[in-house]
């Protein structure tokens, strides 16, 4: 009998939470973005709970929201992940450390070198969330007037991947002989100069750091578009994705793994990890109350801006304490409008509550008891909507602690999650093979 599949869990770290109201929640650490002691505590707690990885998302500009909303959000600012994660590597031993870095605004030599360093410093725990950068304002911080066009960004990203992985393969694993007698430090026969000249990038190489412990740090993708899915199928070993429900999650899972198989890749060598907000209560009603309290901490004005965008219609004249009125279709996103209308009809939320939901967090959420949350996670795993989750904590530290203390033991009791790490590297945790060096056979 085949062994039961288990969930993989990554922590989606915006250190104060992704939810815009979280910094105002009772007991929250509003300054966690810049408080290393808090970040260390979070990483160590997640490691005790045997999480696969701590994932630090990143943006290269403050979020592109109107200033009246921005001024109310803690998600504006954060540490640079590639400065933070090596520091966390020194205070943890097993948990994977995944950072976002941009193929649009960075240089491949830089990225290859930094992630190889993180992999060595952490003893094989690094992962790279390879994004093309979603926030167009980043262009303005890098000497450009406009964001590079979407398909162009993905073409550059594909070439970027080849260059970065080629640089990681610069040295055979046994290149550094360090022979004290002969005075030979490395074997020049075991060194490859990449000499890449492509459409977007020109990089001679070799990389000035030994091959990473994992061969390559784990490659993560988070794109959703046609181009994003295709590059994931070609290159990714883990995928972060925003899927609103199990049905859509299954169709994404089948699509990306199908593309992978058509390319001759083994679909088990990619773990699909949808993002989910998980809010734990003593009872369903308790969890729903906590969520309502959290949403109520989103300022109405900033929620209103999000609601108007989602509806494609200015909601500022609606009565905040009445149900959502009928709204004519517009030229904006039909899907997001329909999602809001469905939510309003299903839950009887007022305009104010809808605005606060949209302004806080409106993606996939598991809100309930440890048992109902485990049921939902199990369903996604068994119905092949996911190989695990990138967990968003609703508020920190409380929401993170509750997940680790209550949901993880329930998943372990069901045999759905590890009780101990069985390996030492992020590849071990995710069940991924170590890539061979494309230029050298093992010596
Ligand atoms: C869980 C998750 C995490 C993401 N993290 C980042 C991030 O840290 N930085 C970033 O610029 N974009 C991030 N994104 C956005 C994606 O990179 C991507 O731009 C978005 O999903 C739209 O897909 P597309 O670019 O293929 O249209 C994330 C997306 C998801 C679902």
Explain this structure.
By secondary structure, the protein is of the alpha/beta class. Helix content is 38%, strand content 12%. The protein contains 14 helices and eleven strands. The strands form two sheets. The protein has an eight-stranded parallel beta barrel with strand order 1-2-3-4-7-8-9-11, surrounded by seven helices. Strand 8 (238-241), helix 7 (246-262) and strand 9 (271-280) form a beta-alpha-beta unit. The model has no long low-confidence stretch (mean pLDDT 95). The structure holds flavin mononucleotide (FMN). The site of flavin mononucleotide (FMN) has 21 residues, from strand 4, helix 6 and strand 8.
Summarize the structure.
With 443 residues, this protein is an alpha/beta fold. The chain has helices at residues 36-48, 67-70, 81-89, 108-121, 150-168, 226-235, 246-262, 284-296, 300-311, 334-347, 351-360, 370-382, 398-413, 426-430; strands at residues 8-13, 53-56, 96-102, 126-131, 196-197, 202-203, 218-221, 238-241, 271-280, 365-368, 388-392. Flavin mononucleotide is lined by residues 12, 57-59, 100, 129, 131-134, 222-225, 227-228, 240-242, 275, 390.
Features:
alpha/beta; eight-stranded parallel β-barrel; binds flavin mononucleotide; globular; 443 residues
């Amino acid at each position: 009998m085949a062994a039961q599949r288990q969930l993989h869990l990554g922590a989606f770290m915006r250190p104060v939470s992704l939810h815009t109201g979280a910094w105002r929640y009772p007991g929250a650490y509003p300054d966690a973005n810049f408080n290393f002691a808090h970040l260390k505590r979070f990483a160590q707690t997640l490691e005790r709970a045997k999480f696969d990885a701590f994932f630090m998302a990143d943006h290269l500009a403050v979020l592109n929201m109107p200033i009246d909303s921005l001024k109310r959000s803690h998600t504006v600012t954060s540490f640079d992940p590639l400065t933070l994660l090596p520091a966390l590597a020194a205070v943890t031993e097993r948990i994977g450390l995944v950072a976002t870095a941009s193929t649009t605004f960075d240089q491949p030599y830089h990225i290859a070198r930094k992630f190889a360093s993180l992999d060595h410093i952490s003893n094989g725990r690094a992962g790279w969330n390879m994004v093309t950068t979603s926030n167009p304002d980043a262009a303005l911080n890098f000497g450009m007037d406009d964001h590079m066009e979407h398909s162009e960004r993905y073409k550059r990203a594909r070439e970027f991947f080849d260059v970065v992985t080629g640089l990681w393969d610069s040295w055979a694993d046994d290149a550094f002989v360090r022979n004290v007698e002969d005075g030979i430090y490395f074997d020049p026969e075991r060194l490859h100069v990449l000499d890449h000249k492509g459409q977007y990038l020109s990089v001679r190489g070799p990389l000035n750091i030994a091959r990473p412990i994992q061969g390559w740090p784990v490659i993560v993708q988070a794109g959703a578009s046609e181009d994003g899915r295709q590059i994931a199928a070609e290159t990714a070993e883990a995928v972060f994705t925003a899927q609103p429900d199990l049905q859509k999650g299954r169709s994404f899972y089948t699509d990306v793994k199908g593309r992978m198989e058509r390319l001759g890749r083994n679909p088990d060598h990619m773990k699909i990890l949808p993002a989910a907000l998980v809010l734990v209560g003593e009872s369903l009603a308790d969890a729903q109350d906590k969520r309502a309290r959290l949403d109520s901490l989103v300022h109405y004005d900033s929620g209103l801006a999000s609601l108007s965008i989602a509806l494609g219609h200015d909601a500022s004249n609606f009565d905040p304490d009445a149900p959502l009125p009928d709204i004519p279709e517009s030229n904006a996103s039909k899907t997001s409008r329909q999602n809001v209308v469905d939510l309003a009809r299903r839950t009887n939320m007022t305009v104010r509550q809808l605005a606060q939901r949209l302004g806080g967090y409106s993606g996939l959420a598991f809100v309930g008891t440890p048992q109902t949350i485990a049921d939902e996670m199990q369903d996604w795993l068994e119905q092949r909507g996911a190989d695990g989750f990138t967990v968003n904590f609703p508020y920190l530290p409380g929401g993170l602690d509750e997940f680790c203390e209550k949901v993880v033991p329930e998943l372990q009791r069901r045999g759905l999650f590890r009780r101990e790490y069985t390996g030492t590297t992020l590849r071990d945790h995710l069940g991924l093979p170590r890539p061979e060096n494309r230029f050298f056979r093992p010596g």
